[in-house]
């Protein structure tokens, strides 16, 4: 019902891809994209598009390969649309369930505020650490050290350096439906570019918004993902967005019928983790499947 994972924040290009499929082909397409290590998130949608994929690749040309080679040759695929992330303001790693006492939250905030050490970026020997932490961010340092054939102190220092530099992102996920958040939604919108930073700063305080990203492509420059209690709460969310940002125009909204994959974890109908596909570019290995 809850699990931890880790991934890198460097040298990747994130994009969002919408797919429309023939009904008979949808199960096979779902299976294919869920097994792809470079597709780190898969959601089934209502409305015009059947699936939303969250993709991380090394270069923009790799994204073109995903769209043209991997997807367009898929039997039963009828249409593909993509939007490239131009700025990730915040994602699920920033989500706070508000389950901690204020004093405990203050301790964590203080740890995040410590200055980052010198030496940002990844080394070749970091790959094994990241793969292991991607499967379980709470794996003991002693086990990581034994696998890497390094001292436990060295491994601890390296993980802390990557984390404090923002290169290594640790996160905890949970089964949203079992926690009462039974309606996940996506909202695409258009807002003047000069207003995006202010919007993101405001939305980061809204508990129902778990992701905010600026995008290029199409008639929208903003993609939001939210967690709501009931489908009708989407109306209230849109109304609040419109009253808070009068120059924002919602161009599209969808209810997520089911999340199939999140940060590499395969999910069942209740949102529980039932398997894992090691991340590609977002978690740095593996080679394309």
Helices and strands, in order, run as: EEHEEHEHHHHEEHEEHEEE
Instruction: Sum up the overall morphology in one term.
Output: globular
Q: Which class of secondary structure composition applies to the elements?
A: alpha+beta
The pLDDT mean sits at 89
Number of strands: 12
Question: Percent range for helical residues?
Answer: 25-40%
- Helix segment tally: 8
How do the strands of the widest beta sheet line up side by side? 2-4-3-10-7-9-8-5
Describe the overall structure.
This protein is α+β, with helices and mostly antiparallel strands and 289 residues long. The chain is built from eight helices and twelve strands. The protein has helices at 26-35, 60-71, 102-112, 126-135, 141-148, 152-164, 196-203, 233-244; strands spanning 2-8, 13-21, 39-45, 51-57, 77-90, 168-174, 183-190, 209-216, 222-228, 249-262, 265-267, 273-276. The strands form two sheets. It has an eight-stranded antiparallel barrel with strand order 2-4-3-10-7-9-8-5, surrounded by four helices. Strands 1-6 form a two-stranded antiparallel ribbon. A hairpin with a 5-residue loop joins β3 (39-45) and β4 (51-57). The two termini are 28 Å apart.
């Amino acid at each position: 019902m809850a699990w931890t994972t880790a991934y890198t924040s460097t040298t990747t290009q994130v994009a969002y891809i919408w797919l429309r499929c023939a009904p008979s082909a949808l199960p096979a397409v779902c299976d294919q994209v869920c097994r792809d290590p470079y597709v780190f998130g898969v959601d089934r949608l209502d409305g015009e598009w059947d699936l939303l994929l969250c993709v991380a690749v090394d270069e923009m040309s790799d994204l073109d390969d995903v769209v043209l080679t991997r997807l367009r040759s898929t039997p039963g695929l009828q249409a593909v649309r993509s939007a490239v992330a131009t700025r990730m303001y915040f994602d699920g790693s920033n989500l706070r369930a508000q389950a901690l006492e204020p004093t405990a939250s203050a301790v964590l905030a203080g740890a995040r505020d410590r200055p980052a050490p010198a030496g940002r970026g990844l080394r070749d020997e970091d790959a094994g650490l990241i793969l292991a932490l991607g499967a379980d961010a709470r794996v003991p340092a002693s086990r990581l050290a034994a696998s890497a054939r390094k001292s436990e102190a060295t491994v601890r220092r390296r993980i802390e350096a990557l984390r404090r530099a923002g290169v290594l992102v640790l996160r905890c996920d949970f089964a949203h439906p079992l926690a009462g958040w039974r309606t996940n939604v996506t909202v695409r919108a258009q807002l003047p570019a000069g207003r995006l930073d202010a919007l993101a700063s405001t939305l980061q305080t809204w508990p129902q918004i778990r992701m905010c990203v600026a995008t290029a492509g199409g008639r929208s420059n903003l993609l939001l993902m939210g967690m709501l209690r009931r489908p009708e709460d989407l109306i209230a969310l849109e109304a609040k967005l419109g009253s808070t940002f009068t120059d924002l125009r919602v161009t599209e909204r969808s209810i997520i019928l089911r999340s199939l994959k999140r940060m590499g974890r395969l999910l069942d109908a209740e949102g529980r983790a039932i398997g894992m596909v090691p991340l590609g570019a977002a978690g740095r290995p593996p080679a394309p499947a």
